[in-house]
Amino acid sequence: SNKCSFNEQKRLLLLMSLKQSELNSFLWTIKRDPPSYFYGTIHVPYTRVWDFIPENSKQAFQESSIVCFELDLTDPYTISALSSCQLLPQGENLQDLLPRDIYRRLKTHLEYVKLMLPSWMTPDQRGKGLYADYLFNAIAGNWERKRPVWVMLMVNSLTEADIKTRGAPVLDLYLAQEAQRMRKRTGAVEKVEEQCHPLNGLNFSQVIFALNQTLLQQESLRAGGLQVPYTTEHLIKHYNCGDLNSIIFNHDTSQVPNFKNATLPASEQVTAQEIEHYFRQELIYKRNERMGRRVRALLEEQPDKSFFFAFGAETGLMSEKHTQSSYRHIFCFI
């Protein structure tokens, strides 16, 4: 069975050495000479998943001459551009922009997170010299200068479960570092602006609605009145078990919270649906077509090279719910 409990993951490690070829992995092969590959990554510390990645995926990575990612996370410009994209125009401040009540609740919640963060951290994180103040500043520093949509995403990621995963390179970055260490050619199929601008494209009332709903969820969690349907731990478990059919991987826009809620008034239901539709169009369908065209161009331009494309499995292109439509743009010519 693809689905396995946390206890079964230890047994899975043993099986991997015996029945590697029988295990599921997030690896697709483009059958040409030489072959090229798609691999579905996950944006969590590589240490949480590396031992569970089947050998065929690691071998495909080693044998490929060019490794391509969504973005080049080893490029200082990429990191700088991502940070700049999140900032408000010069001279603007979040306090002047947000409704007073939402700003007050946001500040209160961040103070709560900062207070709780030392108790959320793991002994392993402390053993590696990771300090709570440093971690908080790395995630939430300069929050008053950020655009509201990025503050919403930040708040959504400042949970105990997510904090416990911090401290090691995410799988995408680790693969990029390994590719550099092995002197492979690396590349990216997206520009920073293409990932950033769609998020900045929501109108102000939609962003305020999204931020308010995110704060309501976090406030309910703090009060013990809400159970999160899935966490980063669930995502890691299903990824390690090779479970593409999980509801987690079928959550269309897992980069952003799900705002659809049957208890919302009719007008707010409409806003939630508009936001979901916008993100699905911008972060999945349009993005898939754009990435597909660029992958196709790379393969056609360099038919004698073996590519390893590493894209997020839990978002967009690799979601099984969209696999057929996503790959139609890529595989139709092979």
UniProtKB/TrEMBL annotation:
User: What's the Enzyme Commission number for this chain?
Assistant: 3.4.-.-
The enzyme's main class, written as a single word, is hydrolase
What membrane topology does the UniProt entry give? Single-pass type I membrane protein
Coarsely, its chief localization is: membrane
Details of cofactor binding: Divalent metal cations. Mn(2+) or Co(2+).
Q: Which UniProt keywords apply?
A: Cell membrane, Glycoprotein, Hydrolase, Membrane, Metal-binding, Metalloprotease, Protease, Signal, Transmembrane, Transmembrane helix, Wnt signaling pathway
Specify one Pfam family: TraB_PrgY_gumN
Tell me the first and last residues of the signal peptide.
none
- UniProt cross-references to InterPro entries, sorted A to Z: TIKI1/2-like, TraB/PrgY/GumN_fam
* Required co-factors: Mn(2+); Co(2+)
What are the GO cellular component annotations? plasma membrane
Tell me which Gene Ontology terms the entry assigns under biological process.
negative regulation of Wnt signaling pathway; proteolysis; Wnt signaling pathway
- Kindly list any coiled-coil regions of this protein: none
Compartments where found: Cell membrane; Membrane
* GO molecular function terms listed in the Swiss-Prot or TrEMBL record: metal ion binding; metalloendopeptidase activity
Give the family from UniProt: Belongs to the TIKI family.
The free-text function statement in the UniProt record for this protein reads:
Metalloprotease that acts as a negative regulator of the Wnt signaling pathway by mediating the cleavage of the N-terminal residues of a subset of Wnt proteins. Following cleavage, Wnt proteins become oxidized and form large disulfide-bond oligomers, leading to their inactivation.
What's the protein name? Answer: Metalloprotease TIKI
What's the source species for this entry?
Answer: Cyprinus carpio carpio
Lineage here is: Eukaryota, Metazoa, Chordata, Craniata, Vertebrata
